[in-house]
Amino acid sequence: MSTIITSCMQNKINRKVYEWPQMDAPVAAIKPHIRSLHGDTVVDNYYWLNDYFKKGPDSSEVTKYLEAENAYTDSMMSGTKKLQTQLFDEMKGRIKEQDESVPYFKNGYYYYTRTEEGKQYFKFCRKKENLDAPEEILLDVDALAEGHSYYAAGGFNVSPDNRLLAYGVDTVSRRQYTIHVKNLETGEILKDAIPGTSGGSVWANDNRTLFYTKNNPATLLTENIMRHKLGADTDNDAIVYHESDNTNYIGVGKAKSGKFIYIYSGGTLSSETRYLDADDPMGSFTVFQPRMPEVLYSVTALADRFLIVTNQNAKNFKLMECPFNQTGQEHWKEVIPHRPDVLLEDVDEFKDFLVVSERKNGLIQLAIRDLKDGSQHYLDFGEEAYTAYPSNNPEYNTATLRYGYTSLTTPSSTYDYDMNTRKKTLLKQQEVVGGYNVADYVTERLYATAQDGTQVPISLVYKKGFNKDGNAPLLLYGYGAYGVTMDPSFSSSRLSLLDRGFVFAIAHVRGGQEMGRQWYEEGKMMKKKNTFTDFIDCGRYLVDQQYTSSAHLYAMGGSAGGLLMGAVANTAPELWKGIVAQVPFVDVVNTMLDESIPLTTNEYDEWGNPNNKDAYEYIKSYSPYENIEAKAYPHILVTTGLHDSQVQYFEPAKWVAKLRATKTDNNVLLLKTEMDYGHGGASGRFDYLKEIALEYAFLFALEGMVE
């Protein structure tokens, strides 16, 4: 290993061509299905692959095909089994198995999670008043997960009197949670099991009433906010809010001060908030401000007034305020004006301070505003590319800000910042077992010029000793959707790439929100193709600058980033040696036409509604499945999960089947379906490393770096 790593650092990588087994790939049956819409007729030969979604386990033909693809992938990758085991052990070996999160203080208790050696999950714990107090294990997830191939517990919510814990459990990986309630004094799990929820909940101040979000069992849409009284039959829970707009997501939350309970309803373009005095759980929620066309707003309660973050006449958002008893927009008063070069992302409230999360030049800034005198200052982070964010700050009456920090070379770090003295204290930095020297790695921030002249940021990292001569392998990652920002962060598993000579890069393409709200708006709906061309232009720039060459350039993306992978494979197949598409959203037209598929209607403001002719034609012009052609494609590894609730398994399955039947090359095309998991992959803290090991082994095989 050391010999390989040393030679890699001089870009003289020991490459030996990997001999892929010569075997026949599975062939999916052809069953023509006709789609006729807007005068356009399309024959879909693989539409039948969604039968498992429609019919469930009775659809044996689908599972047989997926299992055949899995067997084919296992056989094709058989020569990398030793390497996959080595990679798994290597990546697992960097993780501190017996570990503990930084405790946070809330309502008289310090809360934390801890992990034990050899265990896949964790224990949720607390200590009363100080860290020397005896430990209470509130939830032993290691024990609860026994016997389950998948187990996710979350939404931990302790009652105001500290006696009860509400939490959500998903054992299918479908993001349908059952809420349970535990008596923390007796250890008893109460009979109040609430199925079909989003997992989170909110306690009213009476310690007896829970508010939660109920999902539609078929579409998984968040349709109702419910009220449950402990001890009552959950079938009789009251609907306190029903969302009639199926393009909106809804949820319920609580003010940090504990004074209000909120119901939020929002889509991509418009939102609405309702609020209720938390001391009056049987009361009616009041509309804060009726939804307005193309206006988003969110509400934060201070001790004496509401704050509102809104994009009303402010593309990059501004901060407003209003009295508790006059919440209509006619009473909103400006606190922080709109700035064309600064995106105002969020505010975090404290008794005497306000922490404002802003984004400028693609990077987060944290502004500390003193509510007593109106003064403001910024935290200084000191790196060229980084990620910073307010962390767990549930306590209102404190002058200490807990924040997280990381970069491509800095392991995840947790700080406390005294907003009065301006002193920062490092509480914990992620330990990389076996040692890690930040000085051995280099990170850069580059800008590629897109075809329309836009400057697209690229964050990249490599091991010191790298030479820009075009010989190094480079993995370019991208997402570019929903306004989600792909901030640069550290990954200990990524060291297995870097230490073997790979460069890792993130293309901050339009569709995210790195450069402001307009960055998102220029990569969605009828401008979606900017996301794809930005990524291609970033790849070409890295080749032009000799960070790599097309013979060693790889692309990776998941979910909506998998759509990106499918699009760039169709548009510029010659640019990439290989592509890894994780749970890819590649059958956009058909999915957006089927409202029975989970979350479809929520997505209309992101992609468009193909029931409208102009949207149909535009989506069809880029949807990867629709645009497969008889030509050469790169090597491709596709991953999915049978129980995926976000991108249904049949999208990647259909895509692979059609690619196999159409493409003209002999390059490797593999489909790996996790039969027990969903969108997020395995639930255990080590199992997911097997998926990464497979992906890395695929890349190393293509680079001839298996031995």
Can you describe what's shown?
By secondary structure, this protein is an alpha+beta fold. The protein has 14 helices and 38 strands. The longest helix has 17 residues, at 60-76. It is globular and about 70 Å long. Residues 1-11 have low confidence and may be disordered. The strands form eight sheets. An eight-stranded mixed β-sheet has the order 31-32-34-33-35-36-37-38, sandwiched between helices. It is 19% helix and 32% strand. A hairpin with a 7-residue loop joins strand 6 and strand 7.
Number of helices: 14
* Uncertain runs: 1-11
Q: Tell me what portion of residues adopts beta-strand conformation.
A: 25-35%
User: Between the first and last Cα atoms, what is the distance in angstroms?
Assistant: 9 Å
Q: What characteristic shape results from the CA principal axes?
A: globular
Percent helix, as a range, is 10-25%
Quaternary state, please? single chain
Mean pLDDT: 93
Main sheet strand line-up: 31-32-34-33-35-36-37-38
Largest sheet: 8 strands, mixed
Radius of gyration: 26 Å
Instruction: Find the structural class using helix and strand composition.
Output: alpha+beta
The count of strands amounts to 38
